[in-house]
Design goal:
Elements lengths: L5 E5 L22 E5 L17 H15 L5 E5 L1 H12 L6 E5 L6 H24 L5 H11 L13 H7 L4 H14 L13 E6 L7 H10 L5 E6 L6 H4 L1 H13 L7
Family: Belongs to the peptidase S33 family.
Organism: Actinoallomurus liliacearum
InterPro entries: AB_hydrolase_1, AB_hydrolase_fold, AB_hydrolase_sf, Peptidase_S33
Length: 265
């Protein structure tokens, strides 16, 4: 029985569930206790309603969850919008978050993201992404997004072979995702508060991520001025570095969570 750091892993979507991390995060159990959470409205947690689907509520839920389980000094690991929740929790409850890991988190400006989609998938991908982010609804645009744009999230050779199985087992709440597209995305703006972040922070991003772009990750790192921060940009990597490049990402996570010294800013 050896005490290990505790990692609380927060999924994206929003509206997905923790199964997106399995079996990959089994690699982290070699150096940490890994705890998974389906956020409010998602997966196997209570659906609740749009009034409680907010960044602040989700962030407070993480702290309440840790209280319920007696987790005192968690490292929060957030991927995609789960990183938005993790970052909000660290800003709202700085005394409760030991370390912070932000994987594929900060979206670039629309034009910056569209340029990456065009580079990876041509004019069609750019147009579908533009329409989707502009808020168009309906089965046609959802199908186009899933068939044209989502495959470009991965830069694995031959595509992401596990994508179909992973998507099939997720207990999606598409209402949360639509609420995010139409309401919540515009309400996430932490830029003027990033200087309040105090816990050691690890930022991971893929050089070919069409959503959380590399320049945005660099701007994020530069804006964290009062906390030790490390940035790693992984080449030939798309969205979600733990899934895209586990051989690189998990050793970086291990070194970060087990390091008792503060990383340099």
């Amino acid at each position: 029985m050896v005490e290990r750091p505790t990692i609380v892993v927060l999924h994206g979507g929003p509206g997905a569930d923790h199964s997106v991390f399995k079996p990959g995060f089994g690699a982290a159990t070699e150096f940490a206790q890994v705890v998974y959470l389906d956020q409010r409205g998602s997966g196997r947690s209570d659906r609740a309603g749009p009034g409680s689907w907010t960044w602040d509520r989700w962030a407070d839920d993480v702290v309440d969850f840790c209280d319920a389980l007696g987790i005192v000094d968690p490292t929060l690991v957030g991927t995609s919008s789960g990183g938005w929740v993790a970052l909000t929790a660290a800003l709202r409850h700085p005394e409760r978050v030991s370390k912070l890991v932000l994987d594929s988190v900060m979206p670039g400006p629309t034009e910056e993201r569209l340029a990456v989609f065009e580079r990876l998938g041509g004019a069609e991908a750019r147009e579908v992404a533009r329409r989707y982010w502009a808020g168009e609804s309906g089965d046609e645009i959802r199908a186009a997004w899933e068939s044209v744009c989502l495959p470009l999230y991965s830069r694995k050779s031959g595509g992401d072979p596990d994508a179909a199985d992973r998507l099939a087992r997720i207990q999606w709440n598409h209402d949360v995702l639509e609420h995010f597209r139409h309401v919540l995305a515009a309400r996430f703006d932490p830029w003027d508060r990033l200087d309040r972040l105090t816990c050691p922070t690890l930022v991971l991003t893929g050089a070919d991520d069409p959503v959380a772009t590399e320049p945005a990750a660099r701007r994020l790192t530069e804006a964290i001025t009062n906390a030790p921060v490390r940035l790693h940009v992984l080449p030939d990597t798309g969205h979600g570095v733990f899934r895209e490049a586990p051989g690189t990402a998990f050793p970086l996570l291990r070194d970060f969570v087990t390091d008792s010294t503060e990383p340099s800013t």
